[in-house]
Amino acid sequence: MKKLIVDIGNSIISFGVFNEDKLETRFDIPSNETYVAHIKDQLASFIKDKKLNTKEFDGGLISSVVPMFTISIKKAVKATFGIDVSVLDESFYENIEMVVDDRKEVGGDIVADVMAAKTIFGGPTLVIDLGTITKNIVLDANSKFIGVSFFPGVEACISAMRNNTALLPGFELDAKPEALLGNNTIDAMKSGVFYATFNGLKSLSEELDSKYHFSHKVLTGGNAKLFAPYLKDFIFDEDFVLKGINYLLKNRG
To answer: How distant, in Å, are the alpha carbons of 172, 179, 217, 226 from that of 176?
Structure first.
């Protein structure tokens, strides 16, 4: 039987169809109230477009870092797929070793990254998850999650400049700027966000690598595709979080 795996992030909501460990297809929508308000219609279209047989599904799991959307999506999945999906909580990862002050503070996306890294690679592994917040997640040689560092992601940087100044506009960063310097406002903002993020990723990953000597380094998250071509020593896997949530469900039994 198939499982529906859902990752509710701050920027994107992803739905993945898994048959055992294989991700067969996925569907993404922006994580905002407008899209969630029409989630039943969008899921119905997903089922139709991908020719999914809902009778082949017998459950799933939702990981959410946006609590206000969780119940709405759980109900929509029930209405369109006819299945009850669980919501990720500590009972799904009580056996995962973590060096943290409070396990309740660890977001579902981080737990999923840890579970995917632990299952696929073991340790020592670095996972950089480029979402609204960039997360640098470290597993030691024993596959124990020993810590994480955060810094603002691409959208957070753009939002900060737009919302905290009187004149700077918003924009989308969808490619590497050709020049380090811009000769107009938009190009200057794009250059600053891209190269500051890229050099931050490169410098921090090198410093962490010098201490933990990673066997594997993984790049995932909504903005990973933008930087993956320029970080050649990383494995790019845009489905890493969905895979981790699926492993958490299987691990629960």
So the answer is: 11, 9, 21, 7
Fold match between 2-87 and 97-247? yes
Whether pTM exceeds 0.85: yes
Looking at domain 97-247, which CATH architecture does it have? 2-Layer Sandwich (3.30)
Burial class (CB in 10 A: 0-12, 13-18, 19+), 102: exposed
Answer whether 132's CB lies under 8 Å from 11's CB.
yes
Q: Please name the amino acid found at residue 167.
A: L
**CA 94 to CA 180: how far, in whole Å?**
46
Using CA atoms, how far apart are residues 57 and 9, in angstroms rounded to an integer? 23
CA distance 43 to 87: 18
Measured between its terminal Cα atoms, the distance across the chain in Å is 14
- For the stretch 155-196, pLDDT in tens is 999 999 999 999 899 999 999 999 999 999 999 999 999 999
